[in-house]
């Protein structure tokens, strides 16, 4: 095999690899962006939910926040084997 053929085969292999992996990578990128935006929005909501009581805000954010804290604290105190 000559050097030109080897270079050409390598380039074709790289193009094929890029074309095959692009849909999976783009889908993962979109899902990751959606999840990160959702996490950022819910974190902001949780941050401000402690500033008002249930009567002031008209919602049940304080009970949700306490339930989430309880689950997180339980996870922190779990003894791993």
Task: Give a verbal description of the structure.
- It is built from three helices and no strands.
- It has 81 residues and is mainly alpha-helical.
- The chain starts with a helix and ends in a 5-residue tail after the last helix.
Count the strands? 0
Helix content: over 70%
What proportion of the residues form beta strands (DSSP E)? under 5%
Tell me the quaternary state: single chain
Q: Write down the overall geometry.
A: elongated
Poorly predicted regions are: none
Number of helices: 3
Radius of gyration: 25 Å
What is the structure about, briefly put?
The chain is built from three helices and no strands. The protein has helices at 3-49, 54-57, 61-76.
Outline the secondary-structure elements.
Layout: H1 3-49, H2 54-57, H3 61-76
Summary keywords:
about 85% helix; mainly alpha; about 80 residues; 3 helices
């Amino acid at each position: 095999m000559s050097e030109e053929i080897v270079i050409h085969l390598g380039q074709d292999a790289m193009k094929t690899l890029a074309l095959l992996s692009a849909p999976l990578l783009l889908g993962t990128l979109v899902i990751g962006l959606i999840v990160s935006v959702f996490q950022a929005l819910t974190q902001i909501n949780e941050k401000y939910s402690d500033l008002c009581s249930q009567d002031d805000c008209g919602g049940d954010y304080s009970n949700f926040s306490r339930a989430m804290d309880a689950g997180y604290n339980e996870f922190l105190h779990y003894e791993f084997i």
